[in-house]
């Protein structure tokens, strides 16, 4: 069933991490020793990532507003992790998934880069005609691929199979439609969507191309967005609002002043105060 979706994960090696950097990342994530290279070890790494490394567009927002043509933040995994260790930021999908792939690769997991699209949950509306999302899968022998995505922050690996049930907090069930897997998830302050998996044998060059392609087209260029997974909720900032979703699937939202937004970034999400101060104001038509 998965043969046409994925070739052996070892076929495409992502950018390697410096060994000492991988050790520093594990230590910050709460590990005193490398995790076992098995599904349980993978679940531990992904859980700690979801709780400690945010999905956010802070660096990209600052760079986009300055019209800089430098390489996009997090384009190199070493840069992604060094920046997280120093100022607390994560990244958007191409950067975050590329970084997680490199970390898992350094730990010995059979990991693969994925290319996907976000499509409406009704599956009736037109879908995008080009990739908009990178993802990561781990494949143990002949078992179904396990999706570990730093954007969706499901908290636990999601196997591609029909036995999953939707979770009010995380989403995570998936279905096979016209021969393609659609993984359900619920962004904060947005309708449910499906992550339609196109392929799980992407190369580093594929990721670099689509990451750069997102420079001026991303929905994350107009205003701050950040989210982290807690044990019992997902916390975030979207469109100038502080948003949380609990175990019952109910979201709460309240608007933030500029001062409150910057304070929340620092106090609740661990972002450097000096970096947060560099953020330009959200644009009024922010579509994040």
UniProtKB/TrEMBL annotation:
Superkingdom to which the source organism belongs: Bacteria
Protein name: Arylamine N-acetyltransferase
Organism: Chromobacterium phragmitis
High-level lineage: Bacteria, Pseudomonadati, Pseudomonadota, Betaproteobacteria, Neisseriales
């Amino acid at each position: 069933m998965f043969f046409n979706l994925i070739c052996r994960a070892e076929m495409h090696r992502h950018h390697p991490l410096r060994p000492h950097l991988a050790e520093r990342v594990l230590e910050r994530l709460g590990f005193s020793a490398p995790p076992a290279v098995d599904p349980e070890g993978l679940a531990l790494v992904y859980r700690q990532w979801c709780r400690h490394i945010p999905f956010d567009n802070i660096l990209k927002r600052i760079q986009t507003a300055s019209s800089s043509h430098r390489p996009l933040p997090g384009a190199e995994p070493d840069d992604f992790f060094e920046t997280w260790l120093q100022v607390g930021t994560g990244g958007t999908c191409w950067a975050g998934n590329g970084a997680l792939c490199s970390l898992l690769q350094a730990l010995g997991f059979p990991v693969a880069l994925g290319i996907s699209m976000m499509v409406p949950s009704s599956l009736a509306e037109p879908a995008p005609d080009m990739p908009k999302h990178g993802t990561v899968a781990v494949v143990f022998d002949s078992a179904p691929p396990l999706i570990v995505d730093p954007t969706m922050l499901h908290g636990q690996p999601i196997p591609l199979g029909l036995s999953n049930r939707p979770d009010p907090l995380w989403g995570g069930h998936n279905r096979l439609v016209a021969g393609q897997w659609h993984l359900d998830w619920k962004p904060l302050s947005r309708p449910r969507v499906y992550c339609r998996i196109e392929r799980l044998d992407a190369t580093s060059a594929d990721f670099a191309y689509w990451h750069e392609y997102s420079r001026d087209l991303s929905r994350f260029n107009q205003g701050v967005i950040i989210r982290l997974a807690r044990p019992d909720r997902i916390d975030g900032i979207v469109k100038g609002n502080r948003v949380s979703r609990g175990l019952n699937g109910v979201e709460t939202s309240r608007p933030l002043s500029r001062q409150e937004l910057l304070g929340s970034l620092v106090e609740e999400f661990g972002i450097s105060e000096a970096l947060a101060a560099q953020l330009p104001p959200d644009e009024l038509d922010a579509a994040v």
